[in-house]
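Quick board copy: two proteins, each given as sequence then tokens.
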Amino acid sequence: MDIVAVLQVSFAQLIGPSAIFYALLAIGLNLHYGYAGLLNFGQIGFALLGGYGVGIMTVTYDQPLWVGILVGLALAGLLALVLGIPTLRLRADYLAVATIAAAEILRLMFRSTASDSVTGSTRGLWGFAEPFTSLSPFDSSRQYNLLGMRFYGDDLWAMVVGWTLVLLLCGLVHLLSHSPWGRVLEAVREDEDAARALGKNVFAYKMQALVLGGMIGGLGGIFNALQTKSINPDFYSTAQTFFAFGALILGGAGTVFGPVLGAMVFWFLLTLPDAFLRQAIAGPDPLLPLTEQQVGAMRYVLLGVLIAVMMVFRPQGILGSKRKVQLDA
């Protein structure tokens, strides 16, 4: 068994485009859940609108890429407003139900044959990423060696842009969390009644956090669309939101870099057993009597067990504060 190859594949996922996508989703969720205490189970719906905003405007309506990016972000913010106005004055579970339902409704609408002329239905959209890849200083057809890991030029360019976005958003979250706005938001999370008694407009603060976190989720969808150069509605399933939540919990909610570290560790822990098991079943004399389908399921089982164990011994996550967890409880 080639352990070096297994580690190379796993470390490539640690810093690869998938980790960036889920880091962006988790940063948005961190504003919702970590700082404002909002339960958003439909973050992938914001990403869907971000990605399709780019695809529809550039492919269907032949607009410049920057127009599609602005439309995608605006649609994500609009979805937050539509969901937040009727639910944020109610209990937290209303927002959770509304967001998960809205994300699934959007996915089914965009894959419907009735919307084929606009969204491409189940075929999706493609052919819109050329303005983005044309800015790349790397050769698209060439593989580059980065610390023993190999990436194609387009993926390397996406990683440069993606990690830059992640760092800028982490800086924004740091500034917001240490501002009066961020402190009020944490007060709302801990005790809405106390914040309201001090004259704070709890609904407005919640709405601002929901819109901002949703737009960051939309930015994640835009990044994923440009990196993969395609959009398919079936990708935007509810499971993607729970992957992002897993990354957030793993890294530590209510922290600046927790979502980023969590996304990196999440994909590393997901890829490591997968690469190991696939090598163990390969060849004429496999080490384990497993099929390809069983390996695909087994990696999620192992990851789930690891997260469950961590929740027992470190419920606040890798970078989280135990004091905040106790306050939340």
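And the next:
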Amino acid sequence: MTIYIGVYGASGFGKEVMPLVRQQYPTLLQAQFVFIDDGQAGTTLNGYPVLSYADFVSHSAQHKAVMIAIANSRVREKLAIRLDQDGIQHLAVQAANTVVLDAVEIGEGSLLCPFSCLTSNIKIGKFFHANIYSYVAHDCIIGDYVTFAPAVKCNGNIHIEDHAYIGAGAVIKQGTPDKPLVIGKGAIVGMGAVVTKSVPAGVTVVGNPARVLEKK
């Protein structure tokens, strides 16, 4: 059976993800891997062709699979739906040095970059992205399409709802079993923020301690 693997997103992040995808399929040839990006179709990136989505779908390979390497969670969701409609498999990708311990559940389409760590008793939804040096500690619940930028520190007993974005170097204080700290749906935690209390849905918090960024 011929296999064709695509990394959706010919960007800087896509360039980081492609070697992780290749690592998971060591027996495949380089010619069986491509980037997918309508805006850059017809070019090459790091020696791989960049195809339009339509060209990828129409390829003659019997089995096609895609990793979505796009940090914007809303775009990620739209692309995931598109792939489902076209019957294309979602890849889950995990770096070889990722640490995953006991009782960890992860939904489809997840991406765990190098040096990421999931400890124990964790439940994670679909299409989660954990960039390099990020961790999730014990007894956390993470929704769908959540994005961690590099070096996010998500301590124990934290609930993060769908489409939340946690910026690079952010620290989220540990909650308790009876009162977990909650990051609301669609909330944005700014780069380097130190989150010491729950964050409402849809707001942006910044600083140490993190406070809601007021619109001017």
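Board note added afterward: The chain has two domains: 3-91, 94-205.
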